[in-house]
Design goal:
The protein is 0% helix and 39% strand. The protein is built from no helices and eight strands. The protein has strands at residues 12-18, 24-27, 35-40, 46-49, 63-65, 70-72, 81-85, 92-98. The chain has a four-stranded antiparallel sheet, with no helix packed on it.
């Protein structure tokens, strides 16, 4: 029986994506990704879609992040993450991708 070993990372890349009321790439697909974290600094909620599709605020999203909330991408997911804010504001999605 093999022993479970969690993914580890010694490197992270910090980016910021400005809020937009249209579907936006929040994090590009990356086969080397170990995990990622997101913080929404906008006053409007950020709706993330985790399957590589186009995010919409009414029907096509998986996670809704309110102002100043934190979300951790399921570790091991390496696909595209798109997002849309419920309204365009002055904030951003602060993203840290672990590789």
């Amino acid at each position: 029986m093999s022993e479970y070993k969690p993914a580890t990372s010694s490197s992270g890349a910090l980016t910021s994506v400005a809020s937009a009321a249209t579907s936006t790439t929040i994090l590009a697909a990356n086969a080397k990704r170990k995990g990622a974290t997101f913080v929404n600094t906008d006053a409007n909620a950020l709706c993330l879609r985790l399957d590589g599709g186009t995010a919409t605020t009414t029907t096509a999203f998986n996670v809704r992040i309110i102002q100043n909330a934190y979300f951790e991408l399921p570790f091991g997911y390496t696909g595209l993450v798109t997002g849309i804010w419920e309204a365009d504001g002055a904030g951003a999605a602060n993203v840290c991708e672990f590789i």
